[in-house]
Specification:
single chain, 127 residues, mainly alpha, 55% helix, extended, membrane, transmembrane helix
Length: 127
């Protein structure tokens, strides 16, 4: 890949911004803030081509623009009314998930806890 086609990072972060452990009220800065739209869309295009997702560029572009300023979804010009309605629903129903997803999370959690118990028991008997 040519140098001019490399992904352009967002604005640099200072050390004080990275030290979130000392500030319990710190918020993580959106890494897409400050990237001009044309560069953001170029980054999306490069990413999609590198990962075989060229047919998904329109959807990924909408997602990147939305992720850059999610609070402004009502005024983002690339979103249509259907997109805005889905976002409104997701904002109003944050815990609306399919039952199968919830069961998958529960079963995986039980499996992880069981595995941890077996590891702890094996360590206790090994010493």
């Amino acid at each position: 890949m040519k140098d001019e086609e490399s992904l352009t990072p967002g604005p640099s972060v200072t050390a004080s911004e990275l030290n979130l452990t000392s500030n319990v009220e710190a918020r993580i800065k959106n890494p897409l803030t400050g990237i001009p739209r044309h560069q953001l869309l170029r980054n999306v295009e490069i990413f999609a081509k590198e990962h075989g997702l060229s047919e998904e560029i329109p959807v990924l572009s909408k997602g990147a623009i939305l992720a850059q300023s999610p609070a402004d979804f009502e005024t983002i010009d690339v979103l249509d009314d259907g997109d805005r309605e889905i976002i409104r629903y997701e904002n109003a129903h944050k815990w609306s998930h399919p039952w199968t997803l919830c069961m998958t999370v529960i079963i995986c959690s039980i499996g992880a806890a069981t595995q941890l118990i077996f590891v702890l028991i094996s360590v206790m008997y090994a010493t």
